[in-house]
Design goal:
The chain has 124 residues and is mainly β. The protein has no helices and eleven strands. The strands form two sheets. Strands 2, 4, 5, 6, 9, 10 and 11 form a seven-stranded mixed beta sheet that branches. Strands 1-3-8-7 form a four-stranded antiparallel beta sheet, with no helix packed on it. A hairpin with a 4-residue loop joins strand 7 (68-73) and strand 8 (78-83). It is globular.
């Protein structure tokens, strides 16, 4: 098992930037595929971005492509989500999730380890 803790959320104006962090416990963090997901009130959980074990492969949702960048630092057991050009529709609780499976996909059901989430609010 891996424990995940998100941080870095907050209130930001539209067009601004925010950097989310996901801190993971354990010495086997580098074996996990990690994804960022978000959920707004009354909406389904939505894929945002994912990253492979080494960080060599990254994928972003179309809604955030060109604005959000996912990265990881396995030496620090950290995954980041740099969010630029934020829009009000980006407002949601953001979660990081992990799976040890070799999974090149965005299905949240394949991610079995989840953090508690961090709130991101973008004002217009």
């Amino acid at each position: 098992q891996v424990q995940l803790v998100e941080s870095g959320g907050g209130l930001v104006q539209a067009g601004g930037s925010l950097r989310l962090s996901c801190a993971a416990s354990g010495r086997t963090f580098s074996t996990y595929f990690v994804g960022w997901f978000r959920q707004a009130p009354g909406k389904e959980r939505e894929f945002v971005a994912r990253i492979s074990r080494s960080g060599s492969t990254t994928v972003s949702a179309e809604s955030v492509k060109g604005r959000f960048i996912i990265s990881r630092d396995n030496a620090k057991n950290m995954v980041y989500l740099q969010m630029n050009s934020l829009k009000p529709e980006d407002t949601a609780v953001y979660y990081c999730a992990a799976t040890e499976s070799i999974f090149y996909g965005s299905d949240p059901n394949r991610y079995n380890q989840w953090g508690q989430g961090t709130q991101v609010t973008v004002s217009s």
